[in-house]
Automatic annotation (TrEMBL):
This is NADP-dependent oxidoreductase domain-containing protein. It comes from Candidatus Enterococcus ferrettii. InterPro entries: AKR, Aldo/ket_reductase_CS, NAD(P)_OxRdtase_dom_sf, NADP_OxRdtase_dom. Coiled coil: none annotated. It comes from the Bacteria.
């Protein structure tokens, strides 16, 4: 598995298995187990996904040595403060059945971000977390966090897909030494993406699916990719992308699909911020 070296020397597998919206405990446990059997070693969850316990059971069931796995979770908005972040991370570790995390992210750019970041820095110093980062932060917020704290975020997990390509933000984050990770690379199927003519035609050239073309497009930009499926065949397909390469012509065609806006919601939407502030998941 290809990996990317973060700014603190930790290496992250470039392909990960995401568990968002896999809320049924038995299904989540089985999906994580199946993903590991398919070859994934990078598993991504979050406090707000409400499946950390099931993810932990799937990890344990797989029986892979801990050092061979890369496990990520994220601190939800209600826990974004110095004291609550520290306490919530311990609860996440307990739910996952782990002694340490490979990557810990602040899930959203709201609440007491700076207090929570100091807590993450301390958790990293204590060895409970190997790498720390952020998710859904605009470039200016990421730079602000880096400039006024001891540790520059190791990674920023943001929405990237053919309709929201974020080329400028990817370049700007990399310039700051912050690796980039893509959530929703398939735009959760929006805009009929799996039947998109351009992506289908590119895939046909290499006997690959639309999903495989998208994953390949991202890893060729050195962007970490999270894919999700509860179907073992699709899990295996999504990771089978190291035997072909896109041409400049292919990439130019994909560039025409960019609409330059989120396929879900704006993080500047005041109503969305209020909704996140009201969502209590950790009691």
């Amino acid at each position: 598995m290809q990996s990317i070296k973060l700014n603190n020397g930790v290496e992250i597998p470039i392909l990960g298995f995401g568990t968002y919206q896999i809320t049924d405990p038995e299904q989540a446990e089985q999906a994580v187990y199946d993903a590991i059997q398919a070859g994934y070693r990078h598993i991504d969850t979050a406090q707000s996904y409400m499946n950390e316990e099931a993810v932990g059971r799937g990890i344990a069931k797989a029986g892979i040595p801990r050092k061979e796995l890369f496990i990520t979770t994220k601190v939800w908005v209600e826990n974004v403060s110095y004291d609550r972040a520290k306490a919530s991370v311990q609860r996440s570790l307990d739910r996952l059945g782990l002694d340490y995390l490979d990557l810990l992210l602040l899930h959203q750019p709201y609440n007491d971000v700076y207090g929570a970041w100091r807590a993450l820095e301390e958790l990293q110093q204590e060895g409970k977390v190997r790498a720390i980062g952020i998710s859904n932060f605009a470039v200016d917020r990421a730079v602000d966090l880096a400039e006024f704290n001891q540790v520059t975020p190791q990674i920023n997990q943001i929405e990237i897909n053919p309709f929201q390509q974020q080329a400028g933000n990817i370049a700007a984050l990399k310039e700051e030494g912050i690796a980039v990770e893509a959530w929703a690379p398939f735009a959760e199927g929006k805009n009929n993406i799996f039947q998109n003519k351009i992506l289908t035609e590119i895939g046909n050239q290499y006997d690959k699916s639309v999903a495989q073309v998208i994953v390949r497009w991202l890893i060729e930009q050195e962007v970490v990719v999270l894919t999700k499926s509860v179907n073992p065949e699709r899990m295996a397909q999504n990771i089978d992308i190291f035997d072909f390469a896109l041409t400049d012509e292919d990439k130019a065609k994909i560039a025409t699909l960019n609409v330059g806006e989120s396929q879900f919601f704006s993080h500047a939407d005041s109503q969305m911020i209020k909704w996140m502030a009201s969502r209590k998941i950790d009691v």
